[in-house]
Design brief:
There is one protein chain. The protein has 715 residues and is α+β, with helices and mostly antiparallel strands. Strand 9 and strand 10 form a beta hairpin. Helix 7 packs antiparallel against helix 8, helix 8 packs across helix 10 and helix 12 crosses helix 13.
């Protein structure tokens, strides 16, 4: 068997598909006018491919566009020596084979006319309408920017904007790049390498995100051959060796066909060879190739329900590899891809990967947004160009969620270098997760995203005031990584002056979050002049917890418990080192300024002050039995535990369940697998303290919870 691969000198086509001889077409293209009742011979292959997907398509407009393109480019030659018209013909043929609509194919034929000939946009609009003009203009704008290294950031910023307004612009651009890559052999090696690197870093990820796998896989092979020629030849030799060997997938495919036939399920079972770069990835991952690693089984059925019926039969009649099962029908990938993935053990222990999808899913899997037709069609028919909003944006129902997010943050990127670095980092995220909001909505985020990313995705700049989150109902820090299917609730502060801390950048994965955080920090170099900032891993403790007023972020907002002291009229403060609450036995000491600081009797500070001759001041609670909840009781607890994942989240959940508010918290670095947490908490009822401490001790991994007795200054 052979893989779907491409040789940079003479690209191979998929098995069973004859390669079009563009040199022959170039000669046909120059034979002159043809009769009115038939298409020019040079475009006959495009028409044939288009009719295969759209049997009722009107080909008149394609003929008209070809005649204009050929006459406009006449006399122009490519570096390969071919007439230039062969390039738009080849690009259009690629798109026709993918199932692009007539409007897209028309624009593809004309995509270089405005840039390279005397044809104007007004002429295109007059002869072909607003929609074709819009697409040609979008592609032309991309071509007007130099592709030199210094120009790349701005080039792709414009490409992104053009793509966002109409994904068909990027479809044409990707097909254009594919044909240029096929004919790259006429250029100098260093230029080949530069173009291949840009293709690898930006265009291939964009093709993946638009779901155009047919273009992506061939681009990967072409880039692989140019940038890693030795590995490419090694992979070619591996595939050639297996070509001559007995294919174990054939036997498994026959067994699958028999199984489905006996179950009464109508299905087409195909062997889908891997392309060169895919084989290379498998070899690097597994080290030694197995016979079934050179391809996968593809099962095509008519309806969604049939996909699950096939899955059930395979898992019943074969031994499934459960770890390989993925359901992309119930939860489509970010690029619209739908399919069931599984793996089964065939005869003699051979493991075969199996893809199960409907014919429609397969079309979208291969062609992505190209297969979805005209995104602006109404009632299933081609619509005229709709009126555009004042900002030039058009609502595109085929636009994937990730593309909408990129459009949002690219407007916030302050310069091209920031945009370029952020774009490449974002495109490197090749997997997306979906998390659910508590209001029933969803957020699409890249894999590895945290609660920080979710906050900015949901609230924009209002997320500057985010103080925490609940993930699947449990309190979690802002740095918590989210998983596919999680439910997240973001908690915002009431204080409008709140802002993010620099540590948030350590947890931000999305461009939206990183750009917003960076912009706020740049605008507030002093940290917002005292605005409360919380870290994703733990809230920052105030410099003097005992001296601070209750945080505006606390759940309770009443008065401090009242203490009577033996020095009438003296200000009274509760010591932050031991945070006494009723009914603790307490003692006071006069400090600088005449204030009285009140400590628990067992606080080490009491013994030290007495040792240096300080006179104790009598202190007592005004109403030790007050349980009305009108007072706020602040207490500091120390939790000692063994380190484990999610320990902090579980502790904060226990605290929240007791209706206590975290004023500050610190987590010391682990020592011998032990972790020490210190929390300053605010309680609405002092009687809740023993129960809170018991709840914290019940958290798995926690072996002790005690009242803090920290050293205090003797002032």
């Amino acid at each position: 068997m052979s893989a779907e691969a491409a040789n940079p000198g003479a690209p191979l086509r998929k098995r069973g598909r004859a390669r079009i001889d563009l040199r022959r077409l170039s000669r046909v293209a120059l034979l002159g006018p043809v009769s009115r009742d038939r298409l020019p011979d040079a475009i006959g292959h495009v028409a044939e491919a288009h009719r295969a997907h759209c049997p009722d398509a009107d080909l008149t407009v394609l003929s008209k566009a070809y005649v204009l393109a050929e006459s406009s480019h006449r006399g122009q030659m490519r570096k390969s020596g071919e007439p230039y018209i062969t390039h738009p013909l080849a690009v259009t043929l690629i798109l026709a084979e993918l199932g692009a609509g007539t409007t897209t194919l028309t624009a593809s034929l004309l995509h270089d006319t405005v840039e390279d000939t005397e044809v104007t946009l007004d002429q295109v609009r007059e002869e072909f309408g607003d929609e074709v003009c819009y697409l040609v203009d979008g592609v032309t704008k991309l071509e007007k920017v130099d592709y030199g290294a210094a120009a790349e950031p701005e080039t792709f910023r414009k490409m992104l904007v053009a793509t966002g307004n109409d994904v068909r612009v990027m479809s044409i651009k990707l097909a254009d790049r594919l044909h240029n890559m096929r004919t790259l052999g006429v250029m100098r090696p260093e230029k080949q390498a530069r173009i291949a690197k840009v293709t690898r870093d930006v265009l291939i990820p964009l093709a993946e995100r638009l779901g155009v796998q047919a273009l992506k896989t061939e681009l990967e092979d072409l880039v692989f051959a140019i940038l890693h020629p030795e590995e490419y030849e090694r992979t070619r030799a591996l595939i050639s060796a297996w070509d001559d060997a007995q294919d174990p997938l054939t036997e498994i495919a026959d067994s699958v066909r028999s199984t489905l036939r006996e179950a009464g399920i109508s299905a087409e079972v195909l062997i889908r060879p891997r392309h060169f770069f895919s084989v290379h990835r498998v070899r690097v991952k597994r080290g030694e190739m197995r016979g079934t690693d050179f391809g996968r089984l593809l099962v095509l059925v008519g309806e969604d329900a049939d996909c699950y019926a096939v899955l059930g039969e395979l898992h019943t009649c074969f031994t499934p590899v459960i770890s390989e099962f993925k359901d992309f029908i119930a939860a489509p990938k970010f690029n619209l891809y739908q399919s069931l993935h599984t793996a089964v053990v065939g005869p003699e222990g051979a493991v075969a990967e199996v893809l199960i999808r409907t014919h429609r899913m397969h079309t979208v899997a291969e062609a992505g947004v190209v297969a979805l037709g005209n995104p602006y069609a109404q009632d299933g028919t081609a619509a005229a160009h709709q009126a555009e909003p004042a900002d030039g944006e058009r609502a595109d129902p085929t636009r994937p969620g990730w593309l909408s997010r990129l459009l949002d943050w690219q407007e916030s990127a302050t310069d091209s270098d920031t945009f370029w670095a952020t774009l490449r980092a974002d495109l490197a995220q090749d997997r997306e997760i979906t998390v659910f909001r508590t209001d029933g909505g969803t957020l699409g985020l890249p894999a590895g995203a945290s609660c920080v990313d979710a906050a900015y995705a949901q609230y924009g700049d209002e997320a500057h005031g985010c103080i925490g989150a609940r993930v699947n109902g449990r309190l979690a820090t802002l740095g918590t990584a989210l998983n596919d299917g999680d439910t997240v609730q973001l908690l915002l502060a009431q204080d409008a002056s709140s802002g993010p801390s620099p540590e948030w950048l350590d947890h931000a994965r999305t461009p939206t979050a990183r750009i917003a955080i960076t912009a706020w920090l740049d605008a507030h170099p002093d940290g917002g002049q005292g605005a409360h900032k919380s870290r994703p891993d733990a809230p920052r403790p105030p410099a003097h917890p005992a001296d601070d007023a209750p945080s505006s972020r606390s759940a309770a907002a009443g008065r401090a418990p009242s203490v009577a002291v033996g020095t009438p009229g003296a200000p009274v403060r509760l010591a932050g080192c031991c945070t006494p609450v009723p009914p603790d036995r307490i003692t006071g000491f006069t400090v600088r300024g005449g204030a009285v600081t009140v400590h628990r009797d067992e606080c080490p500070a009491v013994a030290r002050m007495r040792a240096v001759g300080r006179t104790a001041v009598e202190a007592r609670w005004d109403d030790p039995d007050d349980r009305s909840g009108t007072a706020d009781y602040r207490v500091t607890l120390v939790a000692e535990s063994f380190g484990r994942p999610r320990l902090l989240a579980d502790l904060t959940e226990a605290i929240a369940t007791a209706e206590a508010a975290i004023v500050s918290a610190t987590v010391e670095p682990p020592s011998e697998q032990r972790v020490r947490h210190t929390y300053t908490l605010q309680l609405p009822d002092a009687a809740a303290l023993p129960g809170l401490m018991r709840a914290m001790r019940d958290v798995p991994g926690v072996y002790d919870v005690s009242r803090a007795q920290q050293p205090a200054a003797t002032g």
